[in-house]
Design brief:
The protein has 373 residues and is of the alpha/beta class. The chain is built from 14 helices and twelve strands. The protein has helices at residues 57-72, 80-88, 97-118, 122-125, 146-158, 172-186, 202-214, 229-238, 252-260, 276-289, 303-315, 330-333, 341-344, 364-370; strands spanning 6-24, 27-41, 46-52, 133-141, 163-167, 191-195, 220-221, 243-245, 266-267, 293-294, 322-325, 349-351. Strands 4, 5, 6, 7, 8, 9, 10, 11 and 12 form a nine-stranded mixed sheet that branches. Strands 1-2-3 form a three-stranded antiparallel sheet. The two termini are 37 Å apart.
Length: 373
Amino acid sequence: MSGAIITDVIAHPLTQQMRRPTVTSWGTYSEVSMVLVEVRTDAGVTGVGETLARFAPKAYAEVIETLLKPRIVGQPVANISAHWQQMRRALSGRAGGMLIEAIAGVDIALWDIMGKLAGLPLATLLGGENRSEIDVYAAAVNWGDDALADAELERFIARGFPRIKVKMARPVKEACARIERMRKRAGDDIALCVDANWAYGLDEAIEVGRALAANGYFWFEEPLRPEDEQGYEQLRARCDVPLAAGESNFTVDQAMRLVSNRTLSILQPDVARAGGVTETRRMALLAAAHDVGYAPHIGMSGIVCETASVHLSAAMPNFRVMECEGDESPFKVDIADLKPGCLRQKNGTLDVPRGPGLGLEIDWDAVAHLRSK
């Protein structure tokens, strides 16, 4: 079985209507997409992966089936690192964008197959800590009017989350008021963090960071655009709240500067963007070597991305806490037999699946229903 050969790669572009819109500094998301990747073998074992493809999922599917598939079909499943390098060479230029996100879906599926062939959960196959449960935080209180934010905060608290993320945007004055309001409503026993989704320039971020520090928030996530590495370094020097970022990184070299100089306290790669399990693991271990925490980003992705992230969280030595999206979207609820983390968590902890590979069974009827038109 260890010599199983890849026989096919199938990309399923999917689109969902969000049951509750997500509102960030970027805007309101009521519809998002992804690609579910299916990899088949001559051993009769199939793996599944997920590609972060918020929009234009058919374009991603074409990349997977026309560029990536020919490079790995006929090859042994076990050569995952070699497959990653071969797929990366499908396009020249700096690594990133659609290509690396497409690779992510294939890579996750290959790891799923390896776990199934070995009869081991992915968390065990990866070695490391092999935790049986992980800590999670609720995501997220949306940016919007006060009444909406109050209701979402209270809903997360009622569901037993001891840690909650709050979205921030402009204007800065309103953001600082929201920071204080959420703290007063949550009380001192609930841990709060903020995600700005690149909303600010440096001076604005400094002002928001001071409000966060004054109100005891545990991190300030993506305050600046990811390319502004010097800005992050200057913000770290002038801001007392820990900085978190990394969901916008595609490869380990893009995390290198801010991790190696410890500008970031928390690195947050998204396994469905950052080249899958193979490259995300490299990022997490880079962070571990520099005493920087690992906290996976999930966002509006599906159950495959979330479950792969749970396994990585269980394995990595520097894991801190995982995002637990509360949207209960079709991508999380409908396409597999495992309930999403927001429904399985208890008091901020989440059990790690113990079935082989990812530990998921896909509902292919649900996949067909969600297929992009």
